[in-house]
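Quick bug: Alpha-ketoglutarate-dependent dioxygenase AlkB output formatted oddly.
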Amino acid sequence: MQSSLFPNQTENLLPFQGEMYLFPDFFAKEQADHFFAKLSASLEWRQEPIWMFGKRVMQPRLTALYGDPEKPYGYSGIQMTPSGWTPELRHILDSIQDFSQAEFTHVLCNFYRDGNDSMGWHRDNEKVLGENPTIASVTFGAERIFQTRPYSEKSPKLDISLTHGSLLLMTGESQHFWEHQLPKAKRVNQARINLTFRRLL
Ligand SMILES: O=C(O)CCC(=O)C(=O)O
Ligand SMILES: [Fe+2]
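Here's what came back:
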């Protein structure tokens, strides 16, 4: 089913079975600069291990989780306990909820120190996110390419440039039929913050 959350505002980037909408200038540059500086300095960034093919490996990036402390969240064999919202994260949450008319309980924060940091192919399809989750992805700092492709055929592969202050909304069936990754980018030597707002049931 192709129900559109944002029919008049922007086009769906996915050709079938899911929806992704990009708003490149969601936050103005000055506001995005402010959030990048504040979040870099104030969030509890840590490098955490995950389990991959039965092995414990360190993630190639730093992470932090904020939101409802009663609801822990886990993926790839790790459990994260959320810290309470900071003023900046709450401000961003409010803006995104107003705009999307969706509700979120948590934000998973990723800090890519430079182009050597990355995230491999995956879907955000944990049971606690529900059947067809809406996920709001906000980027500050270095521009990086976000890639998505159908989970079963592995093609076509779409490149989406996520710039400073951008918002990407993923909804509908996107987490069933599409996987995504943030590949390494050898020439990038600046840091990037990505926030994915999620609703845990
Ligand atoms: O850094 C990004 O743009 C992607 C992050 C992501 O896919 C995730 O946190 O699940
Ligand atoms: Fe993801």
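Actually, after a second look the formatting is fine. The chain has three helices and 14 strands. Closing.
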